[in-house]
Design goal:
Layout (H helix, E strand, L loop, with lengths): L4 E9 L5 E9 L8 H9 E2 L4 E2 L4 H31 L21 E4 L11 E4 L4 H14 L1 H4 L8 E2 L12 E2 L25 E6 L22 H8 L9 E8 L2 H6 L3 E4 L3 E3 L15 E6 L8 E8 L15 E8 L1
Parallel strand pairs: 6-15, 7-8
Antiparallel strand pairs: 1-2, 3-4, 5-9, 9-13, 10-12, 10-14, 11-13, 14-15
Length: 334
């Protein structure tokens, strides 16, 4: 049998109507001696069957119609899925809250100003009070963060001044006046104390939708581990409404840090007032702040500081990989 041919079998019928097999030999086409350029041209367009890139125009048309219909169906299915997802979510209210959400029920703390490379693990607030450029950069960082507190609300009359006996009315949120005299040295006008080697660090409580603090508002039932100076501060409060506060305390983390940290003051109060809670994604809501004023921290010494909140439903952990209810930062003045 020749290697240049192929055997093809055909089935037919003879004159008597009986089927019989016939065989035909199909011989290979003679090999064409084409140059590389001619082969390339033939691949683009083959005049023998009028094909372009291996397909005739009608074949390309059918293929195009198929993919248009295929991707159109995919697009419709995708839009149906997205529409279904949007129907199951609410722009204002999360589907899962508190214990059923990934955030959980334990709020964290944050601090400002933050170093530029904070996300890389650097928590050192390094200031040079005698260097105007350095001071101005930290002041600008704080001013930028507090811009939302100073800017007027998008909705006129949406903010009101609140107090423990006068919380926000429906449709309004409590204002946080960061330029008032209640903040002591911790205002932009005083450059937040940065130029006088007595810096202010602002602490904020992260938002958790629907979280309502359980306060330590019974002076006879304060936790044993609460700092004595905070206990004394709470017991001196005469207005029982003011006891509905998420208290905050700060301290140096090591004996050396405790010695170097110096005296501290907190503005406007030593905690986050209860009339700011719960957070329910109100339009124009402002998170309350507490300013920690380090009056005379030691110079040229790295001071590790930890601040934590005190509420019955706020868990505390100082573990570096699982910090809860607290925040760590470091202060260095040169």
């Amino acid at each position: 049998m020749s290697k240049s041919g192929q055997l093809a079998k055909k089935v037919g019928r003879n004159a008597g109507g009986q089927s019989e097999n016939t065989y035909e030999w199909e011989f290979a086409k003679p090999k064409e001696n084409l140059t590389t350029g001619e082969k390339f041209k033939r691949a683009i367009y083959d005049p023998s069957d009028g094909s372009y890139l291996g397909r005739t125009p009608i074949m390309w048309l059918k293929l195009m119609i198929f993919y248009i219909i295929f991707y159109l169906i995919l697009a419709i299915l995708f839009m149906i899925c997205i529409y279904g997802l949007l129907l199951s979510t609410n722009e204002k209210y999360p589907t899962y809250t508190l214990g059923s959400s990934l955030i959980g029920t334990n709020p964290g703390l944050g601090f400002r100003p933050m170093p530029d490379n904070f996300l890389e693990g650097n928590a050192v607030i390094w200031m040079i009070p005698s260097n105007k450029t350095n001071v101005d950069s930290w002041v600008a960082s704080m001013d930028d963060y507090l811009t939302v507190y100073k800017s007027p609300p998008t909705k006129k009359g949406a903010r009101q001044m609140c107090d423990y006996d006068s919380p926000a009315t429906e449709g309004k949120v409590c204002n946080v006046d960061v330029d008032s005299s209640d903040w002591g040295m911790c205002t932009s006008a005083h450059k937040y104390g940065f130029a006088k080697s007595s810096p202010c660090v602002f602490i904020k409580l992260n938002r958790i939708y629907g979280w309502v603090p359980e306060y330590y508002n019974n002076t006879n039932d304060l936790p044993a581990e609460m700092p004595d100076d905070l206990k004394t501060y709470i017991k001196k409060i005469k207005d029982v409404n003011m006891l509905n506060t998420v208290w905050i305390s700060c301290h140096g983390e090591t004996p050396t840090d405790k010695e170097n940290i110096g005296p501290m003051e907190m503005y406007p109060v030593r905690g986050f007032p209860g009339y700011y809670y719960p957070f329910t994604n109100q339009d124009g809501y402002l998170s309350p702040l507490v300013a920690i004023h380090f009056r005379r921290p030691a110079m040229h010494s790295l001071i590790a500081v930890e601040c934590r909140i005190w509420a019955k439903n706020a868990q505390y952990s100082k573990a570096a990989n699982d910090r809860q209810g607290s925040v760590h930062f470091e202060l260095l003045l040169d």
